[in-house]
Write a structure and sequence with these properties.
InterPro entries: Homeodomain-like_sf (IPR009057), HTH_AraC (IPR018060), HTH_AraC-typ_CS (IPR018062), PchR_regulatory_protein (IPR053142), Tscrpt_reg_AraC-type_HTH (IPR020449). With about 350 residues, the protein is an alpha+beta fold. It contains eleven helices and 15 strands. It has an eight-stranded antiparallel β-sheet with strand order 2-3-4-5-14-8-11-15, with helices on both faces. A five-stranded mixed β-sheet has the order 1-6-13-9-10. The protein has a two-stranded antiparallel ribbon with strand order 7-12. Helix 5 packs across helix 6 and helix 5 packs across helix 7. The longest helix has 27 residues. The chain is globular, with a radius of gyration of 21 Å. It starts with a strand and ends with a helix. About 25% of the residues are buried.
Length: about 350
């Protein structure tokens, strides 16, 4: 059975959780609050890095299908990165349905965010990282002067009478690396705050850089743009790999299954996901390993074997390259948090 709540109800549930002291951790600039039971399991972590600049991490598993409705509301500028799970919502004023998979990001401008509905599938682990900041801070962050802003970023600044600007993109390998450094920050206190602010600014630079590149015309030497049907086939291939991580098909077999040739499949993965089909499988397996390492009863050797590594050293090297931390250090860090 699907649970339907309005955004106000969700806000009240979190306020009650905070009053009930369901707080996992708290410091001068951050607080981690458990999800209220009606919404499922997980936590919401909020970090105010400077006035007007916040970092948020949502780690959530709904116990039942969940639908949350919202009304039109004022919105600050927001950058979001989907790390795990499907994120689905429908905005009434835009009359569209958006579904983002792991490895994609989105960008909201300021102004009015139209109300709509977000959907959360039961028992699906979802991990989302967002960055929110006030519009007046954008000019200072980008150019050092509040009143100056590159022309391509001007649509991000809206007002109370205009709908927000919205776009989506593919999370590049560089972005993924920064995300993992944020999730596995090795510092505490003031050092942590400084470190995270630097990483947040780096993520913003990478996303704005991608936005700038998208505005430039492609040269003849660039990869040809994918047709809409080819994009659908690449998404289908991505889904097939995600469903068969234990025994994925070869690139040739995968290409045949989705109806494209091998070259187009590799080209599509690089253009849309910033990696190859093999690299996508490897990254998803390492994400799986990160989740398994959170279980104190599973050894590193068992985790390595479960995600396809016969050699612990090779697994450790791949894990460290992706997440910036050794499996053992990550496991110890997670045990302290439990």
């Amino acid at each position: 059975m699907t649970i339907t709540l309005c955004g106000t109800d969700c806000h009240k549930l979190f306020e009650e959780a905070e009053r009930s002291r369901i707080v996992c951790a708290s410091s001068g600039f951050e607080a981690t609050v458990e999800y209220p039971k009606p919404l499922g399991k997980g936590y919401r972590r909020e970090m105010q890095l400077r006035p007007g600049l916040g970092l948020f991490i949502f780690d959530h598993v709904a116990s039942r299908d969940l639908r949350i409705t919202s009304s039109d509301r004022e919105h600050s500028i927001e950058l979001g990165f989907v790390i795990a799970g499907q994120w689905k919502w429908n905005h009434r004023s835009w009359n569209d349905h958006t579904s983002l998979s792991p490895g994609t990001h989105f960008l909201f401008g300021s102004g009015i965010c139209p109300g709509g509905t977000s959907e959360h599938s039961a028992h699906e682990h979802r991990l989302l990282l967002t960055i929110e900041f006030e519009s007046q801070l954008l000019g200072t962050l980008v150019t050092g002067q509040p009143e100056l802003l590159p022309e391509c970023l001007e649509p991000l600044i809206g007002d109370a009478n205009r709908l927000t600007y919205f776009c989506t993109g593919t999370t590049t390998i560089a972005m993924q690396s920064v995300l993992q450094h944020i999730l596995n920050c090795p510092y505490e206190g003031l050092t942590k705050r400084m470190y995270l602010e630097g990483k947040v600014l780096e993520l913003m630079a990478l996303q704005f850089s991608q936005l700038l590149m998208d505005k430039k015309p492609r040269s003849l030497s660039d990869t040809r743009s994918l047709r809409s049907d080819e994009i659908d086939r690449i998404h289908q291939a991505q889904m097939l790999l995600g469903q068969n991580l234990d025994s994925p098909p070869s690139v040739l077999d995968l290409a045949r299954q989705v109806g494209v040739n091998r070259r187009k499949l590799n080209e599509g993965f690089r253009q849309m996901l910033g990696t190859t089909p093999f690299g996508y499988v490897r990254d998803r397996r390492l994400e799986q390993a990160r989740q398994l390492l959170s279980d104190p009863d599973i050894s590193i050797e068992q985790v390595a074997a479960r995600v396809g590594y016969a050699n612990r050293g090779n697994f450790a090297a791949a894990f460290r390259k992706k997440f910036g931390i050794n499996p053992k250090a990550f496991q110890l860090q997670r045990r302290k948090e439990i």
